[in-house]
Amino acid sequence: DLLDVARAESGAVKVELRPTDVAGLLEDVRRALILKPEVRGLSIDVLIEGDALVAQADSQRLAQVIGNLASNAVKYGAAGGRVKLRAAWADDRVRIEVIDYGPGLSPEKQAQLFEPFNRLGLERSAIEGHGIGLALAKRLTELQGGEIGVISAPGEGATFWVELPAA
To answer: What is the pTM of this model?
Structure first.
């Protein structure tokens, strides 16, 4: 991830935008995620709302973004026992959401989420990480012509979303 951040910031990361089947991509991310030991006992669900959800995206980079968001949902927000990967139309764009049912985030923490190397005060926690995953996810999403954000409140879990142009 660190090398990808450096490449993305220097403009060395190239994306190949092609029509990308979002339902298939989310199922691939789910399958990869459930193989990880830390996911045992959790429910990882894929919910597709709408037909022919095809985004103009780099499928490898989009899978990296969604995989990162889903891994974070497992690490930080899986106290609720489940994570949901959801996709739907948002006007002329495709919206992908990674929803967890954990402790949620304050507005102050949300404002810092996408800053590189910011672990939001969890540097001494047992949760591993370097604080670069979300910064990389933001940059990779932007390189694909998309946007990324979060909706959360303390005690109410978090929904990370990515919107990309439809193909």
So the answer is: 0.85
